From TrEMBL:
Lineage, uppermost ranks: Bacteria, Bacillati, Actinomycetota, Actinomycetes, Kitasatosporales
Stored PANTHER family: SULFATE TRANSPORTER (PTHR11814)
Annotated GO biological process: transmembrane transport
Membrane topology, from the record: Multi-pass membrane protein
Annotated GO CC locations: membrane
Record key words, sorted: Membrane, Transmembrane, Transmembrane helix
Segments passing through the bilayer: 14-34, 41-61, 81-103, 115-139, 159-182, 194-216, 236-258, 322-352, 372-399
One matching Pfam family: Sulfate_transp
SLC26A/SulP transporter domain residues: 10-377
Species, as recorded: Streptomyces resistomycificus
Domain of life: Bacteria
Name of the featured protein: Sulfate transporter
Amino acid sequence: MENRSKFPHLRQDFAASLVVFLVALPLCVGVAVASGVPAELGLVTGIVGGIVTGLMRGSSLQVSGPAAGLTVLVFEAVNEFGLAALGVIVLISGLLQLAMGALKLGRWFRAISVSVVEGMLAGIGLVLIAGQLYSAAGLKAPTSGIDKILGLPGAAADALGSTAAIASLAVGAGTVAVMVLWKRLPKKVQTVPGALAAVLLATGVTLAFGLPVATVQVNGLLDSIQPPGMDAFGELANPAIFGTILAFTLIASAESLFSAAAVDRLHDGPRTEYDKELMAQGAGNAVCGALGALPMTAVIVRSSANVQAGAKTKASRVMHGVWLLLFAALLPSTLALIPLPALAGILVHAGWKLIPFREIVSLWRSHRGEALILVITAVSIVAVNMFEGVLIGLALSVAKTAWEASHIKLEVIDKGAGPVQAYLSGNATFLRLPKILDSLEALPQDRPVELDLSGLHHLDHACRTALENWAERHSAVGTEPVRVTSTEPERVTISVAS
């Protein structure tokens, strides 16, 4: 009774931890392989995400680990700077997250346009699917996102001419099919996670029929952990690495905090403390970087599995990290049995789920500007790269907001005799200046004009100067100069030559 009072939810948390462990295991390995690093490093990040980040305050039911959303970025970083430099990038990213959390910047990530975040995930999903289709066929994928997509027809032709490639594709396709159909099976069967079931079935079929399919290379846990040395820190002399560090920091933070908001909607427990959650993510990434492992984010698939399995406290995610550690320590050789196309199938499925098809359709019906931002962000990530694609999306989002905020209305009252009255209301910014001037310059020059600015909430310097110039030159010779009035002359004043 005493133990039960100290840990009233131990039974629920223990059961949930096993479910999350079974969900996390194939994803940790799959994300590592797709990122071009040893499979064991994915397990290391899962362990750190469970035990280190799991023990910290922030979001009590959210589970962290290596994420499909960072796969493309990690792959590009390893290709450009080398595996040794990955630890440095992740370490500094973690320290930046800690600093941002300490400065209470976590809540500001909630201000990022949802369209940009969903566009980012869609772009990642497209590149991830394209890259993993090559892996499913046992072929080497091109480096850039656009080359991956454009090269698919040629890769398909090559695969159809090879028996080994067809066998590999069949294993990958079978894995995807099992994951899709698993949701339609009875609830009791679904207690085994679909990803794990798919991998086990693929492994069993490959072994039973002796299929010529590549499997995971196992290096051993201790051999895979390579803390960054001085040579790796020497990469900091390359200015390009700082763009990658910034991309890791911003994307991992945004994905984690958006995931936290989503997880909060799944349960009635304590709400997320965003700044503390950002510090928890930072601490985890700093440890992962020091071990030379993959970066981590909060992962919605594992987190939702945790909630649905009945978890009540953070003990479930900590225990899932312990189970990953025991597996990595006691059964690492079993990884060598897993077929690579099965992992590719899992990530194709994960990439497909990253593409928000319903949201795009919904946005197009109600907010076409936001839908365009989402699509352009995704296409930019595929065509250029992750960091610049996100920057393009953010710039478009800011420009759209500025355009909408600069709403201006000009009402002209001309009674045919006396002065023409013009009323400006709203926000007069440089973005709407051409529209304002076109309308004002169309007013008659041989009649007195009264311009009323009392309805303006904001008048920027460009508009102020332009209105001054228009007022000075508008009236024809012999006509009274433009008269400008405002109920708040201390806020809006325009001098007009008499």
